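@channel anyone free to eyeball this complex?
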Amino acid sequence: MDKVMDKVMGNVRLQGVTKTYPNGTLAVHPTSIDIADGELIVLVGPSGCGKSTLLRMVAGLEEITGGTVTIGGRAVNDLDPAERDIAMVFQNYALYPHMTVYKNMAYGLKNRGKPKAEIDEKVRAAAEMLNLTDYLDRKPSQLSGGQRQRVAMGRAIVREPALFLFDEPLSNLDAKLRNQMRVEIRALQRRIGVTSIYVTHDQVEAMTMADRIVVLNGGRIEQIGTPAEIYRQPASTFVASFMGAPPMNLVPADYSGNGSVRVCGTELPLGRSADYRGAVSLGVRPEDVDLATGAGDGPALPFDLHLVEELGAHRLLHGKVHAHPFVVNVHNATALSEGRMYLRVAPGNLHMFAPDSGRRI
Amino acid sequence: MADMTDTRAIPTAATPRRRRLRWGAIADHAVLIAGAFVMMAPLLMLLQMSTVPDAEILKSGPSLRIGDQFGPNLEKAMFGSMSFSGENTGLSMFRNSLILGLGFALGKIVISMMAAYAIVYFRLRFATLAFWLIFTTLLLPLEVRILPSYEVTQKLGLLNSYGGLIIPLIASATATFFFRQYFMSVPEELVEAARIDGAGPVKFFIDILVPLSKTMIAAIFIIMFVYGWNQYLWPTMIVTDEGKMTLVQGIRQITQGLEGNHIPEFGRSNLLAILAVLPPVLVVIFFQSWFVKGLTESDK
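replying in thread with the prediction:
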């Protein structure tokens, strides 16, 4: 592998990066992210959240209207994309249709005036790594979607950049291939150890691939953290409902500062105290509940079952807690009963959010 | 025919439909063959007449006999001249027409591709305005502006030169329009990928855009070559030197050969006429599959 990639230091720093369009729209609010060398950062968010704009500003395809982008200690704001020492994988692959796989991969090196022998060695090594050796003489139109994706990867790899940029690279593939490529890309990135920024709207991709996730909404960062942090400690109701399928249940509740939270008459122990009084949104992950058919001892939320979704290993139970929609995810062996059941939630699995700002309490 | 249809009518219930289809195909071909015959017959007649002595045509008109005069007639057509100076032989006119047709087509392709490239890919302030200005020149064909064009050409000292034949007509709104539409359909990501790959504007144009547009180029080439080859008015204005005359201009001479007191030179005139038709036909035949591709589908 060392033959393919001579490692370049690729720590990336975004400081107050802003995008304002000429018509005055603020597409990306001042954003700061520090990316360590070799880290894979996933930018995730709904469409229009500014994740692609942010990526394109790092790539140099979009002008940076405020702040600084530093790649490997070098400010790149005023550099051309070609001079930024980056490589990008596009959603539609963006392969040159009239060139063979070999030429597609070699084109960037050729433009840099690298000697033929060196180009050849690198292209063949990359093709080897990506199982493309047999396809080097084919045109992109003769390849399957997954193979095209690999060629796009190969084109990025041979450049030996300090930073990989992925712009929703898997969204054109079918579900099965997407899962396979997800693993391939992750494994490849680990092996090569190149710093990467990966944009996606798919929270499964974000969770499975990222070292750290940046959740964006409306041009602002909602939260930066490891997948576990994002999932276990969502910083806002937006993150809580965006990450995870089905999303976190949110139920209106009251917190009066006595170590328990009241949901429509049921006092649930919180196990901690917070510097907050008043109405809250109480968040519970669908899988973080114990389901019981009888009321039993201790505080429990009444759950009225309406619909069972069979997922194979698991079942999704759609129902209501005090007239608020609530989803429970249980193992398929869990006993169910008609009508009312009871939910118990461990104190650590209760999340409280301020109802107005949506921030975590 | 009758028993053929009978035997076919027996086997299955589906036959009537199939039989009708066959009849349809036969009818289609009959129409096509008739059309082709109507188009080809005059040319074949010309060819036949060029093989028999001129006197025989005068006596008995066109016939089906293939004579032995083709060689001498061809020689007369290619190397003989009927003009005063003797410079405009069939061969020299053919050469001039070829230069005009090729220069015209290639020049238009180069200029209009670059114009379309500038309009589509560069953030020019008045790109749209510029495009529509170019586009409105479609409303001003050569015939409308022929006097000022002539004056400019004359002042540039380009009369009686290939440059004068080609350059004043080299801008093409049609081709610019076609290339613009084509470039606009090229995915934006391709441009971005090329930028990241370190291809500057010129490299992107030559390495990516030109090869991508090759079917389009072929289509435009055919249209423009035929258009240039068939120019009559402009060469007549610009060229007075007989050595620079084109074949289409020379048609006057072809008819000249048919006038006067002596026996009209049918054979030679006919061959010159065929010569004037042949290259456009060959170009179309050679490029026709590309032509259809270029105007209908995109290879992206």
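from a first look: The domain at 87-296 of chain B is CATH 1.10.3720.10 (MetI-like fold).
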